[in-house]
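Structure tokens please, single chain.
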Amino acid sequence: MDRIRIALCDANRHEAEGYAKICRSVGENKGISVEIKIYLSNDDLMFDLEDDAFKALFSIMIIDPEGGFAATPAIARQEGFDGLILYLSHSTVPHCYHQAFDAEAYNYVQKGIDPQTLYRFQSVFAKTLGAAKQLDRHYIAVSCAGEYRQINVKDIRYFEAMDKMVRVEYNNESFQFPSTMQSLEERLDGRGFVRTHRSYIVAIDAIQHLNSDDVTLNNGRRVPVSRSYYSAVKSAKIRWQL
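Here you go.
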């Protein structure tokens, strides 16, 4: 079953929980596991936005601009969130519509309990789930000490763990940022990367030669391959070449 993670940002707990229930029901009908984290305050969301893994694991952000979330979509985009943004609000203020447009929102839906309004939300959310399944994220956003990088995934050769930090090498540059290899594996799942060693994750497309104890990349760099990962690396390389 496909899985879609959603951040639902709404200061009204009762409404947030109600719409979360509807979202899960729509997902179930479409054969999609919908996982939702509800944010009742912008501060809680901003705290999570500091974690780069958040921006990649969540495919959809549902925003009610009221209750302190008005600036959230713009900030999320600035922080590198490249998923879908869906506005869900009672507000009909033109300024909110302009904000949605500026944040490249997928849609803007009115809240309401009448059947017609609820049906429209269910319909729009179903289409949003479909779009999220097709979402092709070309970039990975990383940051450290106030410095932010948005790196094209196709330019990345490998990641190396370095004492609670990770170094990414891409093109002729490198950048260090706080992360774990486990969270990186989750972010990069299905995007053409393979774990070769407890300290390395490598772009499969960058591998030129695979040996029993290392791989040679297309820039001549040799990266170690541990015995426990060798079979997975070999299998991934074969699949990626097909």
